Amino acid sequence: MIEFKDVTKTFDSKQGTVHAVQDVNLKIEDGHIYGIVGYSGAGKSTLIRMLNGLETPTSGSVNIDEVEISALTGAKLRAQRHKIGMIFQHFNLLWSRTVLENIMFPLEIAGNSKADAKQKAAHLAELVGLSGRENAYPAELSGGQKQRVGIARALANDPQILLSDEATSALDPQTTDEVLDLLLDINKKLNLTIVLITHEMHVIRKIADHVAVMEDGKIVEQGPVLEVFKRPQQAVTKRFVNEEVTPSLTETTAVVDQLLAKYPKGTIVQLTFHGDQAQLPIVSEMLKQYTLDLNIIEGAIHQTQEGAIGSLYIQISGDQSQINGALAYLQKMRVETEVLNRE
Amino acid sequence: MNSQGLGSYFKFSNVDWGNMLSSTWETIWLTLVSMIVVAILGIALGLLLFETTNSQQPWAKVLNWVVALFVNVFRSIPFIILIVLLLPVTQSIVGTIIGPRAALPSLIISAAPFYARMVELAFHELDHGVIEAAESMGATRWQIIRKVLLPESLPALVSGITVTTISLIGYTAMAGAIGAGGLGNLAYQDGFQSNNNAITLVATVIIVIIVFIFQFIGDVAVKHIDKRAN
Q: What's the CATH number of domain A253-340, 3.20.190.10, 3.40.50.150, 3.30.70.260, 3.20.20.120?
Protein backbone atom coordinates (compact mmCIF):
# COMPACT_ATOMS: atom_id res chain seq x y z
CA MET A 1 0.00 0.00 0.00
CA ILE A 2 1.15 3.49 -0.82
CA GLU A 3 0.56 6.23 1.67
CA PHE A 4 1.17 9.96 1.50
CA LYS A 5 1.02 11.58 4.94
CA ASP A 6 0.72 15.37 5.19
CA VAL A 7 3.07 15.78 2.26
CA THR A 8 4.16 19.28 1.37
CA LYS A 9 6.79 20.34 -1.12
CA THR A 10 7.96 23.91 -1.51
CA PHE A 11 10.45 25.38 -3.95
CA ASP A 12 12.23 28.66 -3.45
CA SER A 13 12.21 30.71 -6.60
CA LYS A 14 12.89 34.32 -7.45
CA GLN A 15 9.17 35.05 -7.30
CA GLY A 16 9.01 33.71 -3.77
CA THR A 17 8.12 30.36 -2.28
CA VAL A 18 6.17 28.02 -4.53
CA HIS A 19 3.96 25.39 -2.92
CA ALA A 20 4.14 22.62 -5.50
CA VAL A 21 2.38 20.15 -3.22
CA GLN A 22 0.39 21.07 -0.12
CA ASP A 23 -0.89 18.86 2.71
CA VAL A 24 -1.51 15.83 0.56
CA ASN A 25 -2.94 12.75 2.23
CA LEU A 26 -3.55 9.78 0.00
CA LYS A 27 -3.81 6.02 0.33
CA ILE A 28 -3.46 3.73 -2.65
CA GLU A 29 -4.33 0.07 -2.18
CA ASP A 30 -2.33 -2.70 -3.86
CA GLY A 31 -3.51 -3.71 -7.28
CA HIS A 32 -5.46 -0.54 -7.90
CA ILE A 33 -5.11 1.80 -10.82
CA TYR A 34 -5.03 5.20 -9.22
CA GLY A 35 -5.34 8.25 -11.43
CA ILE A 36 -4.25 11.72 -10.42
CA VAL A 37 -5.72 14.34 -12.70
CA GLY A 38 -4.98 18.03 -12.86
CA TYR A 39 -3.99 20.82 -15.18
CA SER A 40 -0.31 21.49 -15.74
CA GLY A 41 1.30 23.10 -12.72
CA ALA A 42 -1.12 21.44 -10.33
CA GLY A 43 1.72 19.54 -8.67
CA LYS A 44 0.87 16.04 -9.85
CA SER A 45 4.25 15.54 -11.48
CA THR A 46 6.05 16.45 -8.26
CA LEU A 47 3.75 14.17 -6.31
CA ILE A 48 4.32 11.07 -8.45
CA ARG A 49 8.10 11.64 -8.42
CA MET A 50 8.09 11.35 -4.65
CA LEU A 51 7.17 7.68 -5.03
CA ASN A 52 10.58 6.81 -6.43
CA GLY A 53 12.55 9.49 -4.66
CA LEU A 54 13.16 11.70 -7.69
CA GLU A 55 11.64 14.38 -5.49
CA THR A 56 11.68 14.49 -1.71
CA PRO A 57 8.93 16.14 0.33
CA THR A 58 9.77 19.26 2.33
CA SER A 59 7.63 17.86 5.11
CA GLY A 60 5.48 14.79 5.63
CA SER A 61 6.27 11.24 4.57
CA VAL A 62 5.75 8.93 1.64
CA ASN A 63 5.49 5.23 2.48
CA ILE A 64 5.30 2.14 0.36
CA ASP A 65 4.45 -0.98 2.37
CA GLU A 66 5.66 0.63 5.59
CA VAL A 67 8.98 1.66 4.05
CA GLU A 68 9.45 5.39 4.20
CA ILE A 69 10.64 6.17 0.68
CA SER A 70 11.12 9.82 1.47
CA ALA A 71 13.76 8.94 4.08
CA LEU A 72 15.83 6.59 1.90
CA THR A 73 19.10 7.65 0.31
CA GLY A 74 21.98 6.09 -1.60
CA ALA A 75 22.06 2.35 -2.14
CA LYS A 76 18.81 1.71 -0.25
CA LEU A 77 16.93 4.18 -2.41
CA ARG A 78 18.41 2.66 -5.57
CA ALA A 79 17.42 -0.84 -4.45
CA GLN A 80 13.88 0.40 -3.84
CA ARG A 81 13.79 2.03 -7.28
CA HIS A 82 14.45 -1.33 -8.91
CA LYS A 83 11.02 -2.32 -7.64
CA ILE A 84 9.20 0.71 -9.04
CA GLY A 85 8.80 1.02 -12.79
CA MET A 86 8.14 4.34 -14.47
CA ILE A 87 6.93 5.36 -17.91
CA PHE A 88 7.15 8.83 -19.36
CA GLN A 89 5.34 11.19 -21.70
CA HIS A 90 8.30 11.36 -24.06
CA PHE A 91 9.22 7.70 -23.57
CA ASN A 92 12.83 8.53 -22.61
CA LEU A 93 14.29 5.57 -24.44
CA LEU A 94 17.98 5.28 -25.22
CA TRP A 95 18.15 5.87 -28.95
CA SER A 96 21.55 4.19 -29.15
CA ARG A 97 20.03 0.88 -28.05
CA THR A 98 17.68 -1.48 -29.83
CA VAL A 99 14.27 -2.38 -28.45
CA LEU A 100 15.72 -5.46 -26.76
CA GLU A 101 18.72 -3.58 -25.38
CA ASN A 102 16.44 -0.85 -24.02
CA ILE A 103 14.40 -3.43 -22.15
CA MET A 104 17.64 -5.01 -20.88
CA PHE A 105 18.84 -1.66 -19.53
CA PRO A 106 17.17 -1.75 -16.08
CA LEU A 107 18.16 -5.41 -15.74
CA GLU A 108 21.81 -4.51 -16.35
CA ILE A 109 21.50 -1.73 -13.79
CA ALA A 110 20.12 -4.17 -11.24
CA GLY A 111 23.13 -6.40 -11.84
CA ASN A 112 21.64 -9.26 -13.87
CA SER A 113 23.86 -11.20 -16.24
CA LYS A 114 23.63 -10.33 -19.93
CA ALA A 115 22.21 -13.74 -20.81
CA ASP A 116 19.46 -13.56 -18.17
CA ALA A 117 18.65 -10.00 -19.12
CA LYS A 118 18.34 -10.93 -22.77
CA GLN A 119 15.99 -13.81 -22.09
CA LYS A 120 13.79 -11.74 -19.82
CA ALA A 121 13.75 -8.81 -22.26
CA ALA A 122 12.67 -11.08 -25.11
CA HIS A 123 9.79 -12.34 -22.98
CA LEU A 124 8.74 -8.80 -22.08
CA ALA A 125 8.91 -7.65 -25.70
CA GLU A 126 6.44 -10.39 -26.48
CA LEU A 127 4.20 -9.42 -23.55
CA VAL A 128 3.83 -5.86 -24.81
CA GLY A 129 3.27 -6.94 -28.40
CA LEU A 130 6.64 -6.09 -29.92
CA SER A 131 7.61 -9.52 -31.20
CA GLY A 132 9.64 -9.19 -34.38
CA ARG A 133 10.72 -5.62 -33.57
CA GLU A 134 13.37 -6.58 -30.98
CA ASN A 135 16.29 -5.39 -33.08
CA ALA A 136 14.74 -2.13 -34.25
CA TYR A 137 16.04 1.18 -32.93
CA PRO A 138 13.60 3.62 -31.27
CA ALA A 139 13.90 5.98 -34.26
CA GLU A 140 12.30 3.28 -36.40
CA LEU A 141 9.25 2.89 -34.14
CA SER A 142 5.93 4.70 -33.95
CA GLY A 143 4.94 6.58 -30.80
CA GLY A 144 2.75 3.74 -29.59
CA GLN A 145 5.51 1.21 -30.13
CA LYS A 146 7.97 3.42 -28.28
CA GLN A 147 5.65 3.56 -25.30
CA ARG A 148 5.33 -0.23 -25.44
CA VAL A 149 9.11 -0.41 -25.13
CA GLY A 150 8.84 2.03 -22.23
CA ILE A 151 6.28 -0.22 -20.56
CA ALA A 152 8.33 -3.38 -21.11
CA ARG A 153 11.38 -1.60 -19.72
CA ALA A 154 9.43 -0.43 -16.67
CA LEU A 155 8.32 -4.02 -16.01
CA ALA A 156 11.78 -5.55 -16.37
CA ASN A 157 12.66 -5.77 -12.69
CA ASP A 158 9.25 -7.20 -11.70
CA PRO A 159 8.07 -4.03 -9.98
CA GLN A 160 5.17 -3.92 -7.54
CA ILE A 161 4.28 -0.44 -8.68
CA LEU A 162 4.17 1.21 -12.07
CA LEU A 163 4.26 5.00 -12.26
CA SER A 164 2.89 6.60 -15.40
CA ASP A 165 3.81 10.22 -16.02
CA GLU A 166 1.45 11.47 -18.75
CA ALA A 167 2.34 8.32 -20.65
CA THR A 168 -0.29 8.81 -23.35
CA SER A 169 -0.21 12.59 -23.69
CA ALA A 170 2.07 12.49 -26.72
CA LEU A 171 0.00 9.86 -28.51
CA ASP A 172 -2.97 10.11 -30.86
CA PRO A 173 -6.39 8.98 -29.54
CA GLN A 174 -6.32 5.51 -31.03
CA THR A 175 -2.78 4.76 -29.90
CA THR A 176 -3.69 6.16 -26.50
CA ASP A 177 -6.47 3.59 -26.21
CA GLU A 178 -4.16 0.77 -27.28
CA VAL A 179 -1.57 1.73 -24.69
CA LEU A 180 -4.26 2.10 -22.01
CA ASP A 181 -5.63 -1.34 -22.87
CA LEU A 182 -2.13 -2.73 -22.49
CA LEU A 183 -1.78 -1.09 -19.06
CA LEU A 184 -5.14 -2.48 -18.01
CA ASP A 185 -4.11 -5.91 -19.22
CA ILE A 186 -0.82 -5.75 -17.32
CA ASN A 187 -2.58 -4.55 -14.18
CA LYS A 188 -4.77 -7.65 -14.30
CA LYS A 189 -2.11 -10.13 -15.35
CA LEU A 190 0.58 -9.05 -12.90
CA ASN A 191 -1.62 -7.56 -10.17
CA LEU A 192 0.46 -4.44 -10.42
CA THR A 193 -0.43 -1.19 -8.68
CA ILE A 194 -0.50 1.60 -11.25
CA VAL A 195 -0.29 5.24 -10.27
CA LEU A 196 -0.84 7.51 -13.23
CA ILE A 197 -0.94 11.23 -13.66
CA THR A 198 -2.68 12.86 -16.57
CA HIS A 199 -4.55 15.95 -17.64
CA GLU A 200 -6.97 13.90 -19.71
CA MET A 201 -10.11 12.71 -17.97
CA HIS A 202 -10.49 10.20 -20.77
CA VAL A 203 -7.48 8.29 -19.46
CA ILE A 204 -8.93 8.23 -15.95
CA ARG A 205 -12.30 7.05 -17.13
CA LYS A 206 -10.87 4.37 -19.32
CA ILE A 207 -8.58 2.61 -16.90
CA ALA A 208 -8.50 4.09 -13.41
CA ASP A 209 -10.61 2.73 -10.57
CA HIS A 210 -9.83 5.60 -8.21
CA VAL A 211 -9.11 9.21 -8.95
CA ALA A 212 -7.72 12.22 -7.14
CA VAL A 213 -8.16 15.68 -8.59
CA MET A 214 -5.34 18.13 -7.96
CA GLU A 215 -5.39 21.89 -8.10
CA ASP A 216 -2.71 24.31 -6.87
CA GLY A 217 -0.80 21.55 -5.13
CA LYS A 218 -3.78 20.26 -3.20
CA ILE A 219 -5.98 17.25 -3.68
CA VAL A 220 -9.42 18.82 -3.92
CA GLU A 221 -11.42 15.67 -4.53
CA GLN A 222 -10.83 11.95 -4.47
CA GLY A 223 -12.74 8.71 -4.61
CA PRO A 224 -13.84 5.87 -6.88
CA VAL A 225 -13.91 7.03 -10.50
CA LEU A 226 -17.61 6.37 -10.96
CA GLU A 227 -18.53 8.38 -7.86
CA VAL A 228 -16.45 11.32 -8.95
CA PHE A 229 -17.88 11.14 -12.45
CA LYS A 230 -21.43 10.96 -11.22
CA ARG A 231 -21.20 13.57 -8.52
CA PRO A 232 -18.31 15.94 -9.08
CA GLN A 233 -18.16 18.38 -6.18
CA GLN A 234 -15.47 20.90 -7.01
CA ALA A 235 -15.51 23.33 -9.92
CA VAL A 236 -12.28 21.94 -11.33
CA THR A 237 -13.63 18.39 -11.20
CA LYS A 238 -16.81 19.43 -12.98
CA ARG A 239 -14.69 20.99 -15.67
CA PHE A 240 -12.75 17.77 -16.12
CA VAL A 241 -15.89 15.66 -16.18
CA ASN A 242 -17.62 17.92 -18.67
CA GLU A 243 -14.60 17.85 -20.95
CA GLU A 244 -15.22 14.19 -21.16
CA VAL A 245 -18.59 14.48 -22.87
CA THR A 246 -17.81 13.00 -26.22
CA PRO A 247 -19.94 10.79 -28.46
CA SER A 248 -17.76 7.79 -27.63
CA LEU A 249 -19.59 6.91 -24.45
CA THR A 250 -19.37 3.22 -25.32
CA GLU A 251 -15.86 2.84 -23.97
CA THR A 252 -16.85 3.49 -20.40
CA THR A 253 -15.25 0.30 -19.18
CA ALA A 254 -15.20 1.46 -15.59
CA VAL A 255 -18.92 2.20 -15.66
CA VAL A 256 -19.70 -1.04 -17.45
CA ASP A 257 -17.73 -3.19 -15.05
CA GLN A 258 -19.52 -1.68 -12.11
CA LEU A 259 -22.93 -2.16 -13.70
CA LEU A 260 -22.26 -5.77 -14.49
CA ALA A 261 -21.15 -6.43 -10.94
CA LYS A 262 -24.16 -4.63 -9.53
CA TYR A 263 -26.84 -6.16 -11.78
CA PRO A 264 -25.89 -9.75 -12.49
CA LYS A 265 -29.35 -10.75 -13.75
CA GLY A 266 -31.04 -9.86 -17.01
CA THR A 267 -29.57 -8.16 -20.04
CA ILE A 268 -27.99 -4.80 -19.64
CA VAL A 269 -28.19 -2.63 -22.70
CA GLN A 270 -26.63 0.71 -23.31
CA LEU A 271 -28.68 2.90 -25.62
CA THR A 272 -27.28 5.97 -27.28
CA PHE A 273 -29.65 8.50 -28.82
CA HIS A 274 -28.57 11.20 -31.17
CA GLY A 275 -30.27 14.51 -31.90
CA ASP A 276 -34.03 14.24 -32.53
CA GLN A 277 -34.37 10.67 -31.29
CA ALA A 278 -33.55 11.91 -27.83
CA GLN A 279 -36.94 13.58 -27.82
CA LEU A 280 -39.02 10.58 -29.03
CA PRO A 281 -40.78 8.12 -26.67
CA ILE A 282 -38.88 5.18 -28.08
CA VAL A 283 -38.51 3.20 -24.88
CA SER A 284 -42.15 3.53 -24.00
CA GLU A 285 -43.10 2.33 -27.48
CA MET A 286 -40.78 -0.64 -27.07
CA LEU A 287 -42.51 -1.65 -23.84
CA LYS A 288 -45.89 -1.55 -25.52
CA GLN A 289 -44.78 -3.87 -28.27
CA TYR A 290 -42.81 -6.40 -26.22
CA THR A 291 -43.48 -8.08 -22.90
CA LEU A 292 -40.49 -7.08 -20.82
CA ASP A 293 -39.51 -5.98 -17.36
CA LEU A 294 -37.54 -2.79 -17.53
CA ASN A 295 -35.20 -1.31 -15.01
CA ILE A 296 -33.61 2.04 -15.73
CA ILE A 297 -30.11 2.11 -14.32
CA GLU A 298 -28.70 5.38 -15.45
CA GLY A 299 -29.33 8.01 -18.05
CA ALA A 300 -27.94 11.30 -19.14
CA ILE A 301 -28.15 13.85 -21.91
CA HIS A 302 -25.03 15.72 -22.87
CA GLN A 303 -24.83 18.74 -25.10
CA THR A 304 -21.98 18.48 -27.54
CA GLN A 305 -20.87 20.40 -30.57
CA GLU A 306 -22.80 17.94 -32.76
CA GLY A 307 -26.03 18.30 -30.81
CA ALA A 308 -27.53 16.40 -27.93
CA ILE A 309 -26.46 12.90 -27.05
CA GLY A 310 -28.54 10.84 -24.70
CA SER A 311 -27.24 7.73 -23.11
CA LEU A 312 -29.37 5.30 -21.20
CA TYR A 313 -28.43 2.15 -19.37
CA ILE A 314 -31.34 -0.22 -18.97
CA GLN A 315 -31.75 -3.69 -17.64
CA ILE A 316 -34.35 -5.81 -19.42
CA SER A 317 -35.56 -9.25 -18.49
CA GLY A 318 -38.09 -11.58 -20.00
CA ASP A 319 -38.27 -14.17 -22.79
CA GLN A 320 -35.16 -14.27 -24.97
CA SER A 321 -37.37 -13.86 -28.05
CA GLN A 322 -38.97 -10.74 -26.57
CA ILE A 323 -35.55 -9.33 -25.73
CA ASN A 324 -34.27 -10.01 -29.24
CA GLY A 325 -37.36 -8.41 -30.70
CA ALA A 326 -36.94 -5.34 -28.56
CA LEU A 327 -33.31 -4.99 -29.61
CA ALA A 328 -34.28 -5.30 -33.27
CA TYR A 329 -36.94 -2.64 -32.76
CA LEU A 330 -34.41 -0.26 -31.20
CA GLN A 331 -32.08 -0.79 -34.11
CA LYS A 332 -34.89 -0.06 -36.53
CA MET A 333 -35.43 3.24 -34.74
CA ARG A 334 -31.75 4.03 -35.32
CA VAL A 335 -30.85 3.90 -31.67
CA GLU A 336 -27.34 2.63 -31.06
CA THR A 337 -27.57 -0.40 -28.83
CA GLU A 338 -24.86 -2.29 -27.08
CA VAL A 339 -25.52 -5.36 -25.00
CA LEU A 340 -23.09 -5.43 -22.13
CA ASN A 341 -22.25 -9.02 -21.42
CA ARG A 342 -20.00 -10.41 -18.83
CA GLU A 343 -16.99 -12.06 -20.38
CA MET B 1 63.52 37.09 -51.33
CA ASN B 2 63.32 35.32 -54.63
CA SER B 3 60.07 33.47 -55.19
CA GLN B 4 61.41 32.01 -58.45
CA GLY B 5 58.14 32.28 -60.39
CA LEU B 6 55.18 29.94 -60.73
CA GLY B 7 57.18 27.30 -62.55
CA SER B 8 59.10 26.58 -59.35
CA TYR B 9 56.03 24.77 -57.93
CA PHE B 10 56.55 21.99 -60.38
CA LYS B 11 60.27 21.29 -60.03
CA PHE B 12 59.53 17.92 -58.46
CA SER B 13 63.10 16.75 -59.12
CA ASN B 14 64.03 18.82 -56.07
CA VAL B 15 61.74 16.78 -53.81
CA ASP B 16 63.43 14.22 -51.58
CA TRP B 17 60.63 11.62 -51.48
CA GLY B 18 62.18 9.57 -48.70
CA ASN B 19 62.31 12.64 -46.53
CA MET B 20 58.74 13.53 -47.53
CA LEU B 21 57.52 10.09 -46.52
CA SER B 22 59.20 10.13 -43.10
CA SER B 23 57.87 13.66 -42.48
CA THR B 24 54.37 12.45 -43.39
CA TRP B 25 54.66 9.64 -40.87
CA GLU B 26 55.85 12.09 -38.25
CA THR B 27 52.80 14.27 -38.85
CA ILE B 28 50.44 11.29 -38.71
CA TRP B 29 52.13 9.95 -35.57
CA LEU B 30 51.94 13.35 -33.85
CA THR B 31 48.30 13.75 -34.82
CA LEU B 32 47.26 10.27 -33.71
CA VAL B 33 49.09 10.30 -30.39
CA SER B 34 47.86 13.77 -29.45
CA MET B 35 44.33 12.88 -30.64
CA ILE B 36 44.17 9.84 -28.37
CA VAL B 37 45.45 11.73 -25.34
CA VAL B 38 43.19 14.72 -26.10
CA ALA B 39 40.16 12.43 -26.45
CA ILE B 40 40.76 10.79 -23.07
CA LEU B 41 41.68 14.01 -21.28
CA GLY B 42 38.89 16.00 -22.96
CA ILE B 43 36.19 13.48 -22.08
CA ALA B 44 37.43 13.32 -18.48
CA LEU B 45 37.51 17.11 -18.14
CA GLY B 46 34.18 17.50 -19.95
CA LEU B 47 32.58 14.95 -17.62
CA LEU B 48 34.03 16.77 -14.62
CA LEU B 49 32.59 20.05 -15.85
CA PHE B 50 29.18 18.49 -16.59
CA GLU B 51 28.93 16.64 -13.29
CA THR B 52 29.93 19.64 -11.21
CA THR B 53 27.89 22.28 -13.05
CA ASN B 54 24.61 21.91 -11.20
CA SER B 55 25.95 20.44 -7.99
CA GLN B 56 25.16 22.09 -4.70
CA GLN B 57 28.26 20.66 -2.98
CA PRO B 58 30.87 23.33 -2.14
CA TRP B 59 33.77 21.14 -3.28
CA ALA B 60 32.04 20.54 -6.63
CA LYS B 61 31.54 24.25 -7.12
CA VAL B 62 35.22 24.92 -6.45
CA LEU B 63 36.26 22.07 -8.74
CA ASN B 64 33.97 23.33 -11.49
CA TRP B 65 35.41 26.81 -11.13
CA VAL B 66 39.01 25.57 -11.27
CA VAL B 67 38.43 23.29 -14.26
CA ALA B 68 36.46 25.97 -16.10
CA LEU B 69 39.25 28.49 -15.47
CA PHE B 70 41.88 26.05 -16.73
CA VAL B 71 39.81 25.30 -19.82
CA ASN B 72 39.08 28.93 -20.57
CA VAL B 73 42.65 30.12 -20.08
CA PHE B 74 44.31 27.47 -22.21
CA ARG B 75 41.65 27.69 -24.88
CA SER B 76 42.36 31.40 -25.23
CA ILE B 77 46.12 31.23 -25.74
CA PRO B 78 47.12 31.23 -29.43
CA PHE B 79 48.95 28.00 -30.17
CA ILE B 80 52.15 29.57 -31.45
CA ILE B 81 52.47 31.53 -28.20
CA LEU B 82 51.55 28.54 -26.07
CA ILE B 83 54.28 26.41 -27.60
CA VAL B 84 56.90 29.05 -26.82
CA LEU B 85 55.46 29.64 -23.37
CA LEU B 86 55.62 25.95 -22.56
CA LEU B 87 59.23 25.44 -23.67
CA PRO B 88 60.57 25.06 -20.09
CA VAL B 89 57.69 22.70 -19.24
CA THR B 90 58.39 20.65 -22.34
CA GLN B 91 62.09 20.55 -21.48
CA SER B 92 61.37 19.19 -18.02
CA ILE B 93 58.71 16.65 -19.11
CA VAL B 94 60.16 15.34 -22.38
CA GLY B 95 63.82 16.21 -21.83
CA THR B 96 64.16 18.05 -25.14
CA ILE B 97 62.52 20.89 -27.03
CA ILE B 98 63.29 19.49 -30.48
CA GLY B 99 61.50 16.74 -32.41
CA PRO B 100 57.98 15.32 -32.59
CA ARG B 101 57.84 14.18 -28.95
CA ALA B 102 58.64 17.71 -27.80
CA ALA B 103 55.52 18.97 -29.61
CA LEU B 104 53.16 16.68 -27.68
CA PRO B 105 52.72 18.63 -24.41
CA SER B 106 51.75 21.88 -26.09
CA LEU B 107 49.50 20.10 -28.65
CA ILE B 108 47.66 18.29 -25.87
CA ILE B 109 47.39 21.24 -23.51
CA SER B 110 46.07 23.38 -26.30
CA ALA B 111 43.50 20.95 -27.73
CA ALA B 112 42.23 19.11 -24.63
CA PRO B 113 40.42 22.13 -23.08
CA PHE B 114 38.89 22.89 -26.48
CA TYR B 115 37.56 19.36 -26.74
CA ALA B 116 36.48 19.34 -23.07
CA ARG B 117 34.07 22.20 -23.81
CA MET B 118 32.63 20.28 -26.75
CA VAL B 119 32.19 17.21 -24.56
CA GLU B 120 30.43 19.20 -21.87
CA LEU B 121 28.13 20.71 -24.48
CA ALA B 122 27.37 17.27 -25.91
CA PHE B 123 26.30 16.02 -22.47
CA HIS B 124 24.16 19.10 -21.86
CA GLU B 125 22.38 18.53 -25.15
CA LEU B 126 21.23 15.08 -24.11
CA ASP B 127 17.56 14.82 -23.26
CA HIS B 128 17.41 15.18 -19.50
CA GLY B 129 14.43 12.82 -19.41
CA VAL B 130 16.65 9.91 -20.40
CA ILE B 131 18.94 10.57 -17.45
CA GLU B 132 15.90 10.86 -15.19
CA ALA B 133 14.63 7.53 -16.52
CA ALA B 134 17.93 5.89 -15.62
CA GLU B 135 17.78 7.47 -12.16
CA SER B 136 14.25 6.18 -11.69
CA MET B 137 15.55 2.66 -12.38
CA GLY B 138 18.06 2.98 -9.56
CA ALA B 139 21.17 3.58 -11.66
CA THR B 140 24.28 4.82 -9.88
CA ARG B 141 26.02 7.96 -11.12
CA TRP B 142 28.75 5.82 -12.64
CA GLN B 143 26.19 3.61 -14.44
CA ILE B 144 24.55 6.73 -15.84
CA ILE B 145 27.89 7.98 -17.14
CA ARG B 146 28.87 4.65 -18.65
CA LYS B 147 25.50 3.50 -19.97
CA VAL B 148 23.70 6.75 -20.75
CA LEU B 149 25.92 9.82 -21.10
CA LEU B 150 28.73 8.27 -23.13
CA PRO B 151 26.80 6.03 -25.54
CA GLU B 152 23.97 8.51 -26.07
CA SER B 153 26.30 11.40 -26.89
CA LEU B 154 28.77 9.28 -28.89
CA PRO B 155 27.99 10.86 -32.30
CA ALA B 156 28.64 14.33 -30.88
CA LEU B 157 31.80 13.10 -29.15
CA VAL B 158 33.09 11.58 -32.38
CA SER B 159 32.31 14.60 -34.55
CA GLY B 160 33.88 16.77 -31.85
CA ILE B 161 37.10 14.76 -31.87
CA THR B 162 37.10 14.95 -35.69
CA VAL B 163 37.01 18.74 -35.62
CA THR B 164 39.61 18.80 -32.85
CA THR B 165 41.89 16.42 -34.76
CA ILE B 166 41.73 18.60 -37.85
CA SER B 167 42.83 21.64 -35.87
CA LEU B 168 45.51 19.41 -34.31
CA ILE B 169 46.88 18.73 -37.81
CA GLY B 170 47.13 22.48 -38.29
CA TYR B 171 48.90 22.81 -34.96
CA THR B 172 51.41 20.06 -35.83
CA ALA B 173 52.43 22.09 -38.87
CA MET B 174 52.92 25.17 -36.70
CA ALA B 175 54.87 23.15 -34.16
CA GLY B 176 56.88 21.76 -37.06
CA ALA B 177 57.92 25.24 -38.08
CA ILE B 178 59.78 25.64 -34.81
CA GLY B 179 61.47 22.26 -34.90
CA ALA B 180 58.95 19.55 -34.09
CA GLY B 181 59.47 17.70 -37.36
CA GLY B 182 56.70 16.54 -39.67
CA LEU B 183 55.36 18.13 -42.83
CA GLY B 184 55.20 21.63 -41.33
CA ASN B 185 58.90 21.42 -40.54
CA LEU B 186 59.68 20.16 -44.04
CA ALA B 187 57.62 22.83 -45.77
CA TYR B 188 59.24 25.53 -43.67
CA GLN B 189 62.90 24.43 -43.73
CA ASP B 190 63.33 22.58 -47.02
CA GLY B 191 60.55 24.50 -48.79
CA PHE B 192 60.50 28.09 -47.60
CA GLN B 193 64.03 28.56 -46.30
CA SER B 194 65.67 26.72 -49.19
CA ASN B 195 63.48 28.40 -51.83
CA ASN B 196 62.06 25.07 -52.91
CA ASN B 197 58.41 25.71 -53.71
CA ALA B 198 57.81 22.21 -55.06
CA ILE B 199 58.47 20.79 -51.58
CA THR B 200 56.03 23.27 -50.01
CA LEU B 201 53.39 22.34 -52.57
CA VAL B 202 53.77 18.58 -52.09
CA ALA B 203 53.74 18.97 -48.26
CA THR B 204 50.57 21.06 -48.56
CA VAL B 205 48.83 18.51 -50.75
CA ILE B 206 49.72 15.71 -48.35
CA ILE B 207 48.39 17.69 -45.36
CA VAL B 208 45.15 18.39 -47.22
CA ILE B 209 44.83 14.67 -48.01
CA ILE B 210 45.43 13.78 -44.35
CA VAL B 211 42.74 16.26 -43.29
CA PHE B 212 40.30 14.81 -45.81
CA ILE B 213 40.99 11.28 -44.63
CA PHE B 214 40.38 12.18 -40.96
CA GLN B 215 37.20 14.06 -41.89
CA PHE B 216 35.99 11.12 -43.97
CA ILE B 217 36.67 8.59 -41.22
CA GLY B 218 34.89 10.86 -38.70
CA ASP B 219 31.85 11.32 -40.94
CA VAL B 220 31.52 7.62 -41.68
CA ALA B 221 31.89 6.76 -38.01
CA VAL B 222 29.21 9.26 -36.95
CA LYS B 223 26.84 8.01 -39.61
CA HIS B 224 27.37 4.46 -38.46
CA ILE B 225 26.89 5.24 -34.76
CA ASP B 226 23.97 7.64 -34.99
CA LYS B 227 20.73 5.66 -34.80
CA ARG B 228 18.48 8.66 -34.21
CA ALA B 229 17.31 8.96 -37.79
CA ASN B 230 17.37 6.11 -40.21
A: 3.30.70.260
